[in-house]
Design brief:
The complex is a heterodimer of chains A (about 800) and B (about 375).
Chain A: H1 7-18, E1 24-29, H2 34-47, E2 51-57, H3 66-69, E3 77-84, E4 91-99, H4 104-115, E5 118-123, E6 143-146, H5 151-156, H6 158-167, H7 172-182, H8 189-204, H9 209-214, H10 217-232, E7 240-245, H11 246-252, E8 267-272, H12 275-282, H13 291-299, H14 309-327, H15 334-350, H16 358-368, H17 374-377, H18 379-390, H19 405-416, E9 427-432, H20 437-453, E10 462-466, E11 480-485, H21 489-498, H22 505-519, H23 524-536, H24 540-556, H25 560-575, H26 588-601, H27 614-630, H28 638-652, H29 657-669, H30 675-687, H31 694-705, H32 708-711, H33 715-726, H34 729-743, H35 748-762, H36 777-797
Parallel strand pairs in A: 1-7, 2-5, 2-7, 4-6
Antiparallel strand pairs in A: 3-4, 3-8, 9-11, 10-11
Helix pairs in contact in A: 1-8, 2-4, 2-8, 8-11, 13-14, 14-15, 14-18, 15-16, 20-22, 22-23, 23-24, 23-25, 24-26, 25-26, 25-27, 27-29, 28-29, 29-31, 30-31, 30-33, 31-34, 34-36
Chain B: H1 10-13, H2 15-24, H3 37-45, E1 51-52, E2 55-56, H4 65-75, E3 80-85, H5 91-103, E4 109-111, H6 118-121, E5 123-125, H7 127-133, E6 140-142, H8 144-151, E7 154-158, H9 165-168, H10 171-177, E8 179-181, E9 191-193, E10 199-205, H11 216-220, E11 222-227, H12 233-250, H13 259-274, H14 292-309, H15 316-327, H16 331-352, H17 355-362
Parallel strand pairs in B: 3-10, 3-11, 4-7, 7-10
Antiparallel strand pairs in B: 1-2, 5-6, 8-9
Helix pairs in contact in B: 3-4, 3-5, 12-13, 12-14, 14-15, 16-17
Classes of the chains: A alpha/beta (about 800), B alpha/beta (about 375).
Amino acid sequence: MAAWETPKDLAEQCREILGWDTDLALFPVRHHSPAGARHIEAWLKKYKPDVILIEGPAPWNDKRMEILGDPEHEAPFALIATTRDAKSGEVRTRSYYPMCDYSPELVAIRTARELGAECQFIDLVVRHMAEVDESEGAEEEVEEELGAAEDGPMARSRFTAELVAKSGCRDFDEVWEAYFEQAGWDQKPEDWAVGVTAYALLSRAGYSEAELAAEGTLAREHLMAWHMAEATKGKKKRRVAVVTGAFHTVALRETEPKKVKDAEGIEVFLAPYTFPRLDALLGYASGMSGPQFYQHVWDARKNKAKESPFAIATRQILVEAARLGRQDGEVVGTADAISALAFARDLASLRDRPHIGRAEVIEAAATCLVKGDVTLVGQRMLRALAETMRGKRVGKLGKSAGESALVLDFRRRCDELRIPIEHGRPDKKALTIFASDLDHKRSRFFHQVAFLFEESESPSFCEKTRGPDLETGEDMHLTIEHWDVQYVPEVDARLIELAHLGASVEDVATALLVKRWLAADGKSGELARLLLKGLVMGLHAPAGRLVGKLAAAFFADDDVLSLLEAGQILRTVLRARERLEAEWVKGLPALAQQAFVQGTLRLERLAGLSPDSMGRAVDLLGGLLDVTLTDAALAPSREMTLRHAQAARELARGKAPAILGALDGFLLQLGALDVPAMAVTFRTLARGTTRTDGVGAYLEGILAIARQALLGEEGLLTALIEHIRDGEWDDFVASLPSLRRAFTRLTPRETEAVAERAAKILGVPVGDALQMLGAPPEVVARLAEWEKSLVAGERAWAGGTES
Amino acid sequence: VADTILRPSSENLFSDELAALTAADRHPRPKNWKLSPKAVATFILGSRGEKVGGVEISQKFYGDDALVQRCVVTLASHRGLMLVGDPGTAKSMLSELLTAAISGTSLLTIQGSAATTEDNIKYSWNYALLLAKGPTQDALVASPLHTAMREGKLCRFEELTRCPLEVQDSLVSVMSDKVLLVPELKGDGAVVYAREGFNLIATANSRDRGVNEMSAALKRRFNFETVRPIADLQMEVSLVEREARKLLTGANAEVSVDRDVIELLVTAFQELRNGESAEGVRLQKPSTALSTAEAVGVAYAAGLHAYYYGAGTLTPGDMVQHLAGAVVKDAVEDLPRLASYFETVVKERAKRKGGQWSALLEAEKLLPKPTASA
């Protein structure tokens, strides 16, 4: 790179790099720079190129480039380039190339359309890093990134650090804004481009080749140079304009053209984007990049009064922020907004900046609209300001984008159901599902959409925050469903990923339902859950087809828990039959009964379950008991139930004390066992040496199903007291954690009642039980030692590792 | 200034700089301002190595250039300037510098307190003259505010929120109508119209106990600026080092001050202030605001200690003995916090880095021990 001694030399070199008087002209940009957008528009109209090469994902070139310039599209929108995992076919990385009205790249594309010039993207999608750290599990989660963010090397350069220190600006963003937006707005395109080029040149001088190679910059530039060479090749003389990030612009002429290969199977698609996401992705140091502010600037660039577009934008932002702040309870009036506007103007002027910039707007609002210590009372106002600077604009694509039928259907349904597609604060929807037909439809739609996002890492369009939950059977008394609704760009991205599954949200939900059905591998519980999901989503036709297949699945399923779970879910469906509009499903009661019968037939398998599923097993047994006692139509015959439960009990003895306890409780409830028999089992377990947690687990099983065993007859309580009073100290200590856990099954009032009865049996006054005893030192020492082993025991019992 | 004066005012201390700036100032200035807004900012932020009229302007306020610019802009507007922030963040110093540069005097100051009355703010009377001549201009004792309005200058109001609410509110009409009525006087003196150039700089602590609220009406007449402690470690170290040296020289105490030792002190202050160590260990913040001024105070006292009782070199040991006095304002709450800082942060660093951190850990024994009740 040539050396320069004076600013004039430097400017001369920049002009050479740009080459605006040749047939291959370069234009340096920064993404989302309104001044850059303004200057490139003017320059292209003057330069009149035949071809415009733009830094963007080259794989898109296979599609029609004009699509992007279609005036029907409303920005912001984004090109999304995805790579998929070769084996699983799942999306592995997703790069976003967002564009808004004031993005120089989009302005170039739109101007090209006006001029009839050809457009091409010339950048790699996947960065070719010099050293890729294989240990980073890229396949574990979808990586999201902003495609081509050149601000990086320029913002981090040593030159920028110096400039920040010298200029009194706080960071790169303020430097850029001060010199190239506020001061650059009124410059001639050439002077602006020379300035930006000089900045990039000085920034780049601080980097070594190795650093640039490691970041993948060089590989990308090889490809860009290759596209440049291709465009200028051939006999026909064509004028070529190259629009890239300034950091690349300064290197392209000296870069060797190489057709660097991108990753295999990259797909690029177009999707609407939102300002809040753009704001977050740009990630300015102050946390406010302000897309809406710049949108206002861009929209006001040709105002008739010839007022500074920045001043107009500032006015709009401050008035809106004050309004929003008022809405949130801040005491700010129009007078404050007016004084903030004057303040912003004076501040810019004091800083020798010809227009008001983002920094001045933020500072003016913080100074004039916040009344008190910003860190203490300013949060609400600053949040309102951030929201206003950010905006909540959501892009929209025209017909030429060939949006998938799924996306169109999604938007049509939102429209029909009057659900706004906005990216602001989450829209809180309270659906009166029983009273309003519209809300009922909305609920089904929300469930469908939420289902599309299950098993995906993308944030969903809608999320149920409260309301009756049929799946768990919780909050069934509620009549209102509460949903948070918010559009984020990932919604479209996800819809596009699913587009191959169907043409409407309903179709895709059905397809996914079937897919999940097949993947459930015959597990009755999961299948029943999917049936319920189908009904909740209002997908009655496919759900109806699933019903027919459930019975066969029950016979084939060997898993007792899965079967009992299926029975429970079907019972819920039956109860909510009206609400789900599932009265037509004729065989439903028989089906539910079948699940319980098949489950009961396999009760003996309970004894062989792994300790992990004990909790679930105990709960499901409780469910079976409930149906046996209260719902004779669904329950298997009492005789059969008792037979299998008793057989299971024999198998569980000595193997699974928790299950044994639960089965004993079960049998007690059905009148097939009494408390003294339980006491005998308890004593046997307490004396046994095989398992330290045996007694506790047994007790817990009992209490989960039949709490009266401890609250009614005294036999079991007496056995417990004997264990505590007369047993070996070490045995007692070892069993303590599990006993404690067993008692959590009781309510505090019940625990108290048990304590009172224990006191009575022991013959001590009730109050004394709670009094602390004065103890001699040797007892204290012993207790301390004991507490240590107790904590260790509890930790081991809870599955934690000892530290 | 005669060398017997303990602390000269800013306009006297920096008279050379102010004269040079006035002579070189070519920018437009608001009416009755001694300097243009740009020159005011330069006076406070320094000329950064350049000479203005042959004089290099020293930097007097550190850490937030934009804040100073905003303060100047506010003072040129119709709203008053309210500086809020933790104690010791140089609010008063900033207010003094601003008034010195803009009005040429920083002495038109009202010190707010629980005992401040409306008379202190507006005007009072020389009772001998009042009895002899009746309410005449001669008998009137003008307050700093009265003078500032009459002469088109800036008035400082320190600790505004320490005044009772109703006394504060006597400022509302002055701030909105820019008029002060003296109903006892007849003729010209009965109405004091503020001349251009008049404005008010108030300061208030956001952390003080026992401060009063401000009415919404008065708040509306002010722009608020929050002054924060300096966030940049090296900048604060430089500042503390420079100020401590200056003070020690002024006290004729020849002490060798090592920058590493100062860095130790400032690091501890910043970490305790932020409630988090550089390694991400959560710390309990002491009840005191650990300001830069406080750090200078500790370094100065420790320097004197080293001079009079030590070997003439500032050591972490000297520092620890005075650290407790600065950090521990509430022994019951703060001593354990300081002790836990030594336990969790200093010990770890002494192990890893050694050097001055080991010396600091060694000096821990000099800390006062929490009493049994603590």
